[in-house]
């Protein structure tokens, strides 16, 4: 398969990781970023560096653009790149509104250009195995999910913790649920002086009774990245801070009823063996493959817009005394 040539736009804290993986995959040819650190990194990797976006957009030899700039710039750069005939990978969120997300989806459809969004955990081998087990019925009917992303640091001033941390968790939860929730509410706690939520919890409810909670904080002294999936036959825990061989555990627990009263029955706990691979490299390889084969990515604009709709519902709830918000206010029901 012929490799693709990719330009990276933005080479800050996360962009450096994209640069490393794209370089190791033999696809990186240009970094666009005005910082001296970006120029040094480009030199060390043996690729070109520029401060002008046009050097990437207007270069006919470049097949794809990877965008790792601040969220408010995502829409404009992605739009410009696709209209110029480039495939696009854009870090989360795809844009700042479902209207912008839908517009990028339309451009991708009209131009035939690849549009992929960086919901990294959709490429994590452990999450993919968990999703396979769920879809195969190993857990039974899914009744509840809880996802948490807690750490100390990476505090933002331009966006609250829900927008910063929760997109990955929303993407995972929606991936297992298979559809968007009917309604969403959110609670945020303001701790620091910048007057945006430093801790947040999103509540999601589906028409079929499924419920989920997503918790995030950048003021936690302990790091936690965990997804719990509760079925009526078994339960699963994906804990991404554990060693690889301990990241996924299936608990054969269930609830039975005795004389009409619920009783918890604990079963065996089995660790699930998953071949190890770096999720970011898997994600970048998927982008390269989509460019080469002109195929739709796993995390395409439709998937990203569903995640964005939940984020907008959560934001609306925060602004309206934590009231429930219907997802149909931001995206058409599936």
Automatic annotation (TrEMBL):
Family matches, as Gene3D superfamilies: Dihydrodipicolinate Reductase, domain 2, NAD(P)-binding Rossmann-like Domain
The record places domain GFO/IDH/MocA-like oxidoreductase at 127-236
Q: Pfam families recorded for this chain?
A: GFO_IDH_MocA, GFO_IDH_MocA_C3
- Residues forming the Gfo/Idh/MocA-like oxidoreductase N-terminal domain are 5-119
- Report the superkingdom from the record: Bacteria
- GO molecular function terms noted in the UniProt entry: nucleotide binding
The record's listing under InterPro entries reads: Gfo/Idh/MocA-like_OxRdtase_N, Gfo/Idh/MocA_Oxidoreductases, GFO_IDH_MocA-like_dom, NAD(P)-bd_dom_sf
Q: What is this protein called?
A: Gfo/Idh/MocA family oxidoreductase
């Amino acid at each position: 398969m012929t490799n693709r040539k990719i330009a990276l736009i933005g080479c800050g804290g996360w962009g450096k990781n994209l640069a490393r993986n794209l370089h190791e995959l033999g696809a990186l040819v240009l970094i666009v970023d005005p910082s001296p650190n970006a120029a040094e990194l480009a030199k060390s990797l043996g690729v070109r560096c520029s401060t002008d976006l046009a050097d990437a957009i207007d270069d006919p030899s470049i097949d794809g653009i990877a965008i790792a700039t601040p969220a408010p710039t995502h829409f404009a750069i992605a739009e410009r790149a696709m209209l110029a005939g480039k495939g696009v990978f854009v870090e989360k969120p795809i844009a700042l509104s479902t209207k912008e997300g839908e517009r990028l989806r339309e451009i991708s459809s009209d131009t035939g250009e690849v549009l992929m969004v960086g919901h990294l955990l959709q490429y994590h081998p452990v999450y993919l195995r968990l999703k396979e087990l769920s879809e195969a019925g190993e857990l039974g009917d899914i009744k509840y999910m809880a996802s948490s992303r807690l750490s100390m640091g990476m505090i933002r001033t331009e966006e609250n913790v829900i927008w910063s941390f929760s997109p990955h968790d929303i993407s995972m939860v929606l991936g297992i649920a298979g559809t968007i929730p009917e309604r969403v509410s959110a609670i945020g706690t303001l701790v620091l002086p910048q007057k945006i939520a430093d801790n947040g919890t999103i509540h999601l409810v589906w028409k079929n009774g499924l419920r989920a909670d997503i918790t995030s904080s950048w003021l936690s002294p302990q790091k936690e990245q965990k997804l719990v999936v509760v079925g009526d036959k078994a339960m699963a825990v994906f804990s991404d801070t554990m060693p690889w061989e301990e990241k996924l555990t299936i608990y054969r627990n269930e609830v039975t009823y005795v004389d009409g009263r619920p009783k918890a029955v604990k079963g065996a706990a089995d660790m699930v063996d998953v071949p190890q691979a770096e999720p970011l490299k898997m994600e970048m390889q998927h982008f390269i493959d989509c460019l080469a084969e002109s195929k739709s990515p796993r995390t395409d604009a439709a998937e990203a817009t569903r995640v964005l709709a939940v984020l907008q519902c959560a934001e609306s709830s925060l602004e309206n005394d934590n009231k429930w918000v219907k997802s149909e206010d931001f995206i058409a029901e599936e």
